[in-house]
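Progress note, sequence design subtask.
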């Protein structure tokens, strides 16, 4: 199905890799695939949210697309930062109405099309040849920060915390390879095998690709309930070594630094949701939950609320974007510090990709643990980051970044 769809210039494949609601990460679909576009909206930061709201009001159709992190210039305006252009080149905001929609459930498949040619689509998918593609050699990745520069920057950010400028800040660094032009689909398969996660995505806009193995949900709406599940806190897995594996999860649960970081983002999310939810409806359903993923344990908390009846879904996104797990607190201050100290424009990284259903329900991930590719520019990159607090050890933060990149390193055979 994905091999067939990946040949189309606009497609979005969302895969939860079999994670089930009883595991604490509720999902509506096994997979969703949107192919082609009958209408699109592309905007730059400035009035993007207003344009999206105007474009969607009155529509009762499936919508797929993304919000770039750089929309923070619209939701958390501050001094302009002089960051280099994003060589990947995803728009700040892009949404489309798919020409073809495929819902994959554990025991059924549904195909929808504007042209009522579902049987022909089914035959095309069944007749598609899926072939093994050898990995394309990729030049070594270059970091934007040396190890020493990274450690020094973390120390400088901690001085901001000591001065009271902020409480916690998510600091990211980029690793890039150029010229590099791996096969996008083969690379995504490899990434999914190395690191299957519940908010994975294969997203193509022309020659721009997002190959995403995210474990994190940004925001989901089901009926009259909003759910946010921020991740703050990471420790390594030790497959095959049960005592060490269990000890790592236990250590994460009791980590003073990670608990501090997690509760800060929980408070931030509660504050964001209170802007668009009914008074008294925002609650913390789970605090400091420890979830196992292929390479890491993650500390995840769950916050829910009931949106006010007059709130449009775009207002819910705008009130909570960018997500606190990828900024820090207070959000308006750390967005400026991110622009001051990071050396790459984040673009779609730490933004969100997802869907909106015809009834107004939606689900968006947090774009992390991802490879970004522009085939025209032959530019391949990934970004990783961690939350810096007063308790952070700069060397430990550097090691956490490498742990988070392990799935990508395995997918690219960069052992």
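Output:
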């Amino acid at each position: 199905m994905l091999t067939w769809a990946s040949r189309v210039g606009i497609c979005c494949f969302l895969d939860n890799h079999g994670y089930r609601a009883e595991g604490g990460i509720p999902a509506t679909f096994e997979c969703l695939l949107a192919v082609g576009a009958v209408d699109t909206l592309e905007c730059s930061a400035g009035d993007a949210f207003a344009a999206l709201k105007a474009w969607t009001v009155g529509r009762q159709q499936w919508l797929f697309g993304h919000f770039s992190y750089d929309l923070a210039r619209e939701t958390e305006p501050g001094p302009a930062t002089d960051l280099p252009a994003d060589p990947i080149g995803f728009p700040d905001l892009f949404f489309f109405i798919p020409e073809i929609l495929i819902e994959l459930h554990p025991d059924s498949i549904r195909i929808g099309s504007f042209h009522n040619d579902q049987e022909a689509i089914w035959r095309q998918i069944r007749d598609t040849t899926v072939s093994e593609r050898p990995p394309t050699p990729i030049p070594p990745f270059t970091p934007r920060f040396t190890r020493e520069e990274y450690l020094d920057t973390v120390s400088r950010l901690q001085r901001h915390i000591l001065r009271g400028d902020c409480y916690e800040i998510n600091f990211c660094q980029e690793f890039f390879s150029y010229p590099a032009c791996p096969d996008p689909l083969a690379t995504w398969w490899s990434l999914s095998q190395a690191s299957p996660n519940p908010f994975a995505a294969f997203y193509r806009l022309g020659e721009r690709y997002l190959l995403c193995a995210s474990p994190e949900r940004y925001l989901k709406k089901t009926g009259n309930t909003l759910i946010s599940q921020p991740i703050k806190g990471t420790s390594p897995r030790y497959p095959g070594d049960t005592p060490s594996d269990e000890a790592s999860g236990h250590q994460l649960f009791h980590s003073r630094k990670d608990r501090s970081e997690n509760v800060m983002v929980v408070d931030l999310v509660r504050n964001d949701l209170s802007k668009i939810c009914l008074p008294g409806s925002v609650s913390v359903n789970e605090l400091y939950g420890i979830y196992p993923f292929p390479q890491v344990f993650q500390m995840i908390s769950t916050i829910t609320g009931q949106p006010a009846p007059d709130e449009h879904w775009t207002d819910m996104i705008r009130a909570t974007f960018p997500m606190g797990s990828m900024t820090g607190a207070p959000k308006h201050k750390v967005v400026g510090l991110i622009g001051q100290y990071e050396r790459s424009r984040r673009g779609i990284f730490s933004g969100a990709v997802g869907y909106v259903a015809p009834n107004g329900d939606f689900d968006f991930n947090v774009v992390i643990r991802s490879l970004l590719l522009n085939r025209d520019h032959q530019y391949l990159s990934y970004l990783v980051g961690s939350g810096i607090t007063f308790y952070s050890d700069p060397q430990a933060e550097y090691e956490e970044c490498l742990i988070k990149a392990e799935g990508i390193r395995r997918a690219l055979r960069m052992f």
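The longest helix spans residues 256-274. Work on this subtask will continue into the next period as scheduled.
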